[in-house]
Amino acid sequence: MKRRELPWYRIFEVTLGCCAAIAVAMALGLVNPMSAGVIAILSIQDTKRATLRSAMERFAAYALALLLAYGSFSLLGYHVLAFGLYLLPFSLLCYGLGLQASIPICSVLVTHFWIAGQMSPPMLLNSVLLMLIGSAFGITLN
Fold first, then answer.
1. Residues 34 and 19: beta-carbon distance below 8 Å
2. Mean pLDDT computed over 21-36
3. Dist. CA 87–CA 70, nearest whole Å
4. Three-class SS of residue 28?
5. Which of 4, 33, 64, 77 falls 20 to 30 Å from 128 in CA-CA distance?
6. How far is Cα 123 from Cα 112, in angstroms, rounded to an integer?
7. CA–CA separation, 103 vs 94, rounded Å?
C-alpha cells in the first residue's frame, strides 16, 4: 500500500486560520465567534484567486440571504417554517446563480438571527463582522 503524503502546510494553515479568526471575534465580543473560525476554514481554497473569488461570491450570496431571511422571519416569526421559507428560495437562487457553495455558511449565519429571535442592527453587524473576519483570515493565509 502506498503511503500518502500529508499536506502539512494546509493542515497548519487551516488550524491557524480557524483559531485566529475565533480569537479575533472573541476579542471583539462578537456573538457566536466560532462561526468566524468555520468561515476561515471554508474560505481557504487551493489558490489565492479561488479564495478571493469565493469570498466575493459568499458576500453577494449573504446579501441575498439577509433579504430573504428578513422577509421570511418578518412574515412567520422566528420559527422553523420561517427558516424553511428562507432556505427554499435561497437555495434555488444560489444553485441558479452558481453560488451553491455559499449556502451552508450563509445559512449558519441566518440561524444566528433565528436563535436570537431578531434581526437588529447589532445582530446584522455581528454577522457581517463574522463573515469579514473569517474570510479575511482565509484570504490572508492563502
1. no
2. 97
3. 12
4. coil
5. 77
6. 8
7. 7
